[in-house]
UniProtKB/TrEMBL annotation:
A Pfam entry, by short name: PorZ_N_b_propeller
Superkingdom, taxonomy of origin: Bacteria
PorZ N-terminal beta-propeller domain boundaries: 44-199
Protein name: PorZ N-terminal beta-propeller domain-containing protein
InterPro entries: PorZ_N, Quinoprotein_ADH-like_sf, Reg_prop, WD40/YVTN_repeat-like_dom_sf
Length: 744
């Protein structure tokens, strides 16, 4: 049993100030529903992105994921025990139990930590204080009060051990739907761990298939659903036969019995069977997973697009990402997050999140879009947003206006096989506010295009690419000297740079080059490029990170000798993303979590992963930072994480300090005072009202700093009023504030 860490505070002997990662939130697409259950006026739904509840009376949603204490991510099963606690079972064997009275989760890890190869939880049944968990290896019995596992059934009769159990029906006997057929408890047996305590039925007994998906009793008849219809059991001769011949060879996923009616669920249809008559109640293009029944709402369907209510023809799911696909992230000038969703058929449009509401730009909501295959995203400093499409050029979003750019209205040429198929993989503004556009694979070799503020177009071939075959250009960034950096993934795998020297029609003074392992890169298989606050180029690959520090030599030399170093602390990491925070620290996404390193890369400040933080997954897909708030955005295949850091862009000039909490109660020195409103590289002095210096602090350089209530000798200060004096290094700009300290 474990509680979630809502705030991570990391101290280092090499740091004056701690790194505080707080206010963690997770955002996942919760439309793909696996299982549902209702209790009174409340619906609980388990999805691939977490779980949510919906109150039919108040119309309020509540979402739960790792930030709220739910450790499972791919939830298959949900049930409510005899005490009102809600149980969630995951594909990896984790069981999370939510207690509404305490608003807290407990996590049961016994199955997750076991040596079983297959650990998934497929469904639950409740009987008194016992939870029956149908798993990928059999049935486990769990005490709902103590969470103690008091029995597990691994083998049923002559069936193989550790077979997958899909569903359980609890009547006078225990009936089990497995991947090998049906197992039924023998009357009078109590030691159900013994295989001989079970009767088993397979093809030799008349079942049309071994893959039994559900089992129930209807009108005193035992029914088994499979991928070949519904079968009924004949107790006289222990054989099975077709129960509804018209559904033979139809895959039945789920069955429930309500008021002497049998409801059956297929992949996209719901049937009602009553008085020997079968009626089709509902059909859809959506994918169905599970059926449930509510006294108020009637039949409810777990679908690929939320929970469907047949009675009122409504769909229930909380606002969230349209899809858990975040190949690229960008934060605009207003702090709004934009995300691309994928290339080719995987793309679902452009997602936007303003901190409260998610919205989607797709061909359904915005018919002016050419397709949904938006592959790249860029938030420009003037507030415009650009997104590259896989085959249809790119779009500009300026307020409510969407403008398309493709081969028909620009000079950009598509791939060699089809000049109209334009893939745009990256964007960037230079110092003149020209928009630079990276062509993934230009048929005319003009891999860079430029659009000026007055709408003039210029195309550029890269001299360093002229005598080699280059394709799949990605990861465009522009440094302070207006040098364009990007890499290629196809044919020639390398890093490239290009500077047109601000003469857009004179190729003779262009500067370009190719950089590979022969020049000092750890690997040419580059996955991420970023420019930091000093103008250094950070290059991530499958073999760590390199830094190029003397980029000015490109502009001033015909044959620049670039200084390339390797970040020793990241040498074993496979890099997936890089982001630079306002203090020039680097967040590094890897296949094993997030790493925060110092501005020069010499120190690892923090390591975050799915085990020591609310990160949804260890493999980081993308990163972005809101410099005004210090918020970090992390894209994974299970959803988006956000958390706040103290690395916030400093204010331009002092306009008052916000110092909290006040009074500051200190007892053991673990508490911190926040000092907000600082200019760049502020120095802080803590003094008494009589003018005695208590503590001198050098801040990290951003808007926020912290004081732990100690003096320069490391002793906790006494109760009293203290003056906080903040200034720049030369003391030309000064701001003061007060803090009340209460020593316990």
């Amino acid at each position: 049993m474990k509680k979630i860490i809502f705030s991570l505070i990391i101290f280092s002997s090499l740091q004056i100030f701690p790194q505080i990662f707080s206010n963690w939130k997770n955002y996942s697409d919760m439309k793909s529903i696996r299982s549902i259950v209702t209790s009174g006026n409340e619906l609980w739904a388990a999805s691939t992105g977490g779980v949510f509840s919906y109150n039919f009376t108040s119309s309020e949603y509540r979402t739960f994921s790792k930030a709220e204490g739910l450790f499972g991510t791919n939830i298959n099963a949900v049930t409510i025990d005899s005490y009102g606690k809600i149980w969630f079972g995951s594909a990896n064997g984790l069981i999370d139990v939510y207690n509404p009275e305490t608003n807290s989760f407990s996590t049961i890890r016994d199955i997750f930590n076991s040596d079983k190869t297959n650990k998934g939880i497929n469904s639950f049944k409740v009987k008194g204080d016992t939870i029956f968990a149908a798993t990928d290896y059999g049935i486990s019995l769990i005490d709902s009060k103590s969470f103690f596992f008091y029995d597990t059934y691994f083998k049923f009769g002559t069936f193989s051990s550790n077979i997958k159990v899909s569903k359980i029906y609890l009547g006078n006997l225990i009936y089990v739907a497995t991947e090998s057929g049906v197992a039924v408890q023998k009357p009078g047996t109590t030691n159900l761990s013994a295989p001989e305590s079970w009767n088993v039925y397979n093809l030799s007994n008349g079942l049309p298939s071994l893959r039994i998906s559900d089992i129930t009793i209807f009108g005193e008849k035992l029914l088994a659903a499979s991928d070949k219809g519904v079968s009924v059991f004949d107790e006289t001769n222990s054989t099975w036969s077709s129960f509804i011949p018209s559904l033979n060879n139809t895959s039945i996923l789920n069955m429930i019995v309500v008021q002497e009616k049998l409801y059956l669920l297929t992949q996209n249809k719901v049937f009602e069977y009553s008085n020997s008559t079968l009626n089709e109640l509902y059909s859809s293009s959506l994918e169905f997973k599970n059926l449930s029944y509510s006294t108020d709402k009637g039949l409810l369907i777990a679908s690929s697009n939320g929970v469907l209510s047949l009675n009122d023809n409504k769909t229930y799911f909380p606002n969230g990402p349209f899809v858990n696909q975040f190949p690229q992230l960008a934060v605009d000038v207003n702090g709004v997050l934009w995300t691309s969703t994928g290339n080719d058929v995987t793309g679902k449009g452009i997602q936007k999140f303003d901190g409260n509401v998610w919205s989607i730009y797709n061909t359904t909501e915005n018919p002016e879009l050419p397709s949904n295959s938006f592959y790249s995203i860029y938030a420009a400093p003037d507030g415009k947003v650009f997104s590259g499409n896989w085959g249809k050029g790119f779009v500009k979003i300026d307020g409510n206006k969407i403008t398309r750019f493709d081969a028909s209205n620009t000079p950009i040429v598509g791939i060699p096989q089809d000049g109209n198929f334009v893939v745009i993989s990256g964007f960037g503004y230079d110092s003149k506010n020209n928009l630079w556009i990276l062509n993934y694979d230009a048929g005319d070799k003009n891999n860079l295009a430029m659009l000026t503020p007055d709408s003039s177009w210029f195309l550029f071939q890269i001299p360093a690419q002229q005598n080699i075959v280059v394709s799949k250009n990605v990861n465009l960034v522009i440094d302070q000297y207006d040098t364009k950096w990007f890499n290629s993934l196809g044919n020639t795998v390398a890093l490239f740079y290009f500077n047109e020297n601000k003469t857009y029609q004179n190729p003779n003074d262009d500067k370009s080059g190719i950089i590979t392992t022969s020049n000092g890169l750890n690997s040419s298989d580059i996955t991420a490029i970023q420019i930091d606050k000093r103008g250094d180029v950070w290059i991530g690959s499958n073999r760590g990170v390199n830094i190029i520090t003397n980029t000015s030599t490109i502009v001033n030399n015909t044959n620049p000798q670039l200084r390339i170093t390797s970040v020793f602390a990241l040498r074993q990491q496979s890099i997936t993303a890089i982001a630079v925070d306002p203090l020039n620290q680097k967040w590094i996404g890897t296949n094993e979590g997030l790493v925060l390193v110092s501005s020069d890369g010499l120190r690892v400040i923090a390591n975050l992963n799915s085990k020591n933080s609310p990160l949804l997954d260890d493999r980081i897909e993308s990163l972005a930072i809101d410099e005004k708030t210090g918020k970090v955005f992390v894209g994974t295949k299970f959803g988006l994480n956000t958390f706040e850091t103290p690395s916030i862009k400093p204010v331009d000039s002092f306009s008052g300090l916000s110092i909290y909490p006040s009074p500051f109660v200190i007892s053991d020195g673990s508490q911190l005072v926040t000092i907000d409103g600082l200019i760049k590289d502020s120095e802080i002095k803590i003094i008494t009202v009589s003018g005695k210096l208590v503590r001198k602090l050098e801040t990290p350089g951003g808007r926020v700093a912290y004081w732990d209530g100690r003096d320069d000798d490391g002793n906790l200060v006494n109760s009293g009023i203290y003056i906080v004096v903040a200034s720049d290094r030369e003391a030309n700009s000064v701001e003061t504030g007060k803090i009340a300290v209460l020593r316990k």
